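Quick illustration, no need to memorize.
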Amino acid sequence: MRARTTKMSAIGAAIGLVLAATVAVAPASASPVKTAVPSTCSAFDTRTVTAQSVAYTGIAMRGGDTITARVAPARTGDYIRVSGSYGLNIIVGEGSAVTGYTWRAPADGVYNLGWSYRSTTGTVPTGLTWTFDSTCSNVSVAPSPSPSSPTKPGNGKGKNK
């Protein structure tokens, strides 16, 4: 049991470092103007940013809304990684850098998301241009996660022995 706890702690720490690094390396010009009202998903339609990585906070989305990121130049075998948070949930996903990656919001809420380029050769092209598109409900979302979360409660009968 202790080995599993240690392993889970190490995984959690690694995810936290990835998230912190993604947000820390995003240039100030890539961040939206901070306001009391979160941005909406539709603000990503035809948005273009030239930067090595891009991060945004306070994106109001409905469950099922999507944001697609494309990057140029992109090489075969390389990928786009999205990381971020929603309440206490960590978000990590990745897809082909050549075709782009579409991320789908699992539930209504306000998300913090960052996109980065990951190379299989170890060298990332310079002067990356990110292009975003979205499919959104365009309905405002409360600034805190919805009480109806996508997780299902247990039946009280644990599997631990």
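Residues 2-135 form a domain with the Jelly Rolls fold (CATH 2.60.120.1300).
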